[in-house]
């Protein structure tokens, strides 16, 4: 996958073309056809990972989706992850912390939602909210935020050590594209439910959010848990790209169907006699 991948490097989001389609030369129709065609392989790989866990396997996958509002996280969940068996997927969206969650450290609620063995976990927003919105809105001190970068790196290092494959994705859209998508939500009654007046307030802070993302990516990108910045002005491309990242990760794990822990031939005889 030829996305912009950051590993311990500085990031300039303004230099990444949000309309680009790196790694894919086709058009929307071709991308959607490939997305559908690859769905069967993704589904089988996920099922094999799940089956492996039923016989002692401990491996799992965590897909972290971060983005500005309207960037298409929900579409990724529906069109990419939605194609696999639901029993092998855990999806969680992190909203503003509850009173109980505020009584604990910022990773407490995240640990509770981590995927078990054999499962693909998806975070629609994640622990990174505690260094993104907290920086932009000054909800924590600069010293606290700097400390959290280190805590996140250590947390993700622990996950990798526990056999979790982490795929961190920032869906990167332009300010102009976000405005078009927000306008569409206002123009269509069937999308009014998706519109949040607060999105405009956050939009006013666009430059600050871009800086916060650049810092978070640079501080937390590691060899085991790199960041993938995916141009997302074209929703069809972003969906294809995330599917490719999932496929690459699962192909790398190469889960196998577990061998039966019973005598298959003997069971055939027993079954035939019933």
Fill in the keyword field for this structure.
alpha/beta, 6-stranded mixed β-sheet, 274 residues, Rossmann fold
Can you describe what's shown?
With 274 residues, the protein is an alpha/beta fold. The chain has a single domain (4-272), classed as P-loop containing nucleotide triphosphate hydrolases (Rossmann fold, 3-Layer(aba) Sandwich), CATH 3.40.50. It has helices spanning 28-53, 73-79, 99-102, 108-111, 129-136, 142-161, 175-187, 198-203, 206-220, 235-253, 264-272, and strands spanning 4-6, 60-67, 89-93, 120-124, 164-172, 227-231. A six-stranded mixed sheet has the order 1-6-5-2-4-3, sandwiched between helices. α1 packs parallel to α10, α5 packs antiparallel against α6 (142-161) and α5 runs antiparallel to α9 (206-220).
In terms of topology, how is this protein built?
Blueprint: E1 4-6, H1 28-53, E2 60-67, H2 73-79, E3 89-93, H3 99-102, H4 108-111, E4 120-124, H5 129-136, H6 142-161, E5 164-172, H7 175-187, H8 198-203, H9 206-220, E6 227-231, H10 235-253, H11 264-272
Parallel strand pairs: 2-4, 2-5, 3-4, 5-6
Antiparallel strand pairs: 1-6
Helix pairs in contact: 1-10, 5-6, 5-9
């Amino acid at each position: 996958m030829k996305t912009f991948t950051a590993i311990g490097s500085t990031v300039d989001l303004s230099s990444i073309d949000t309309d680009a389609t790196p790694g894919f030369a086709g058009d929307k129709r071709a991308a959607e056809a490939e997305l559908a065609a690859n769905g069967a392989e993704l589904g089988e790989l996920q099922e094999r990972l799940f089956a492996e866990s039923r016989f002692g396997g401990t491996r799992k996958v965590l897909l972290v989706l971060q983005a500005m509002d309207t960037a298409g996280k929900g579409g990724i969940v529906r069109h990419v992850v939605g194609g696999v068996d639901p029993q092998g997927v855990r999806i969680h969206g992190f909203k503003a912390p509850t009173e109980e969650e505020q009584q604990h450290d910022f990773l407490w609620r995240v640990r509770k939602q981590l995927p078990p063995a054999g499962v693909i976990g998806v975070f629609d927003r994640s622990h990174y909210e505690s260094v993104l919105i907290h920086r932009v809105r000054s909800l924590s001190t600069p010293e606290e935020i700097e400390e959290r970068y280190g805590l996140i790196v250590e947390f993700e290092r622990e996950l990798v050590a526990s056999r979790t494959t982490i795929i961190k994705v920032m869906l990167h859209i332009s300010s102009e594209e976000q405005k078009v998508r927000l306008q569409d939500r206002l123009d269509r009654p069937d999308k009014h439910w998706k519109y949040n007046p607060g999105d405009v307030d956050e939009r006013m802070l666009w430059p600050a959010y871009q800086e916060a993302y650049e810092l978070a990516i640079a501080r937390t990108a590691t060899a085991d848990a790199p960041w993938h910045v995916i141009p997302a002005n074209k929703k069809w491309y972003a969906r294809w790209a995330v599917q490719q990242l999932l496929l690459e990760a699962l192909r790398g794990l190469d889960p196998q169907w577990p061998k039966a822990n019973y005598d298959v031939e003997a069971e055939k005889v027993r079954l035939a006699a019933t």
